[in-house]
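User: Quick sanity check before I run a bigger batch. Here is a single chain. Can you write out its predicted 3D structure?
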Amino acid sequence: MKRSESKYFNTALLMDEALLQLLEKKDFPFISVKEVCKKAGVNRSTFYLHYESLNDLLDEAIAMLNERFVSSFPEDLVKDIGNEILTSPKYLTPYLTFVKENRRAYRLIHDKPELFSAEAAFRKMYRDVFDPALDHFHVREKEKDYILDFYTKGTLAIIQKWVAKDCKEEIPFLVDLIARLTFANERKA
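Assistant: Done. Predicted structure follows.
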């Protein structure tokens, strides 16, 4: 990577992080370019060199989080995730590790789902991950919505409680708990 590309990337990362920090305290419409620049330690001219608006920065911050999320999984799991039991340690361990390392962003996403397009991301995840996994395990079409809700809402409730407690419990404890509660061992048979 060239030095100028690295500098560009680092500046963008500073602004992404600054925006996420400001979102913890304020609603998006009330955040200014000036505040982002001050928090990131960059000039307004640098901001406008990178972005046309705060919406562009928000889009980039969301893309950065999504990229971090996908890269937290081993490459072989990403390729074959539709065939993986989503309550297995192979899937849950990197997922929970990502949540723990990015718990501030995780809280933001769940506190402000409309801002982070959480609904659209969830639909994409359903189409790309959950639906193929349910097909792989020959789940009947009329059961899919129920199983999906049971898995996602139950798992999210556990993870949200864990994040609220600042991720104090060890990850293997949560992996085991989620697997037991979602009957992962019976699904493997």
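Residues 84 and 133 are 7 Å apart (CA to CA).

User: Great, the batch can go ahead then.
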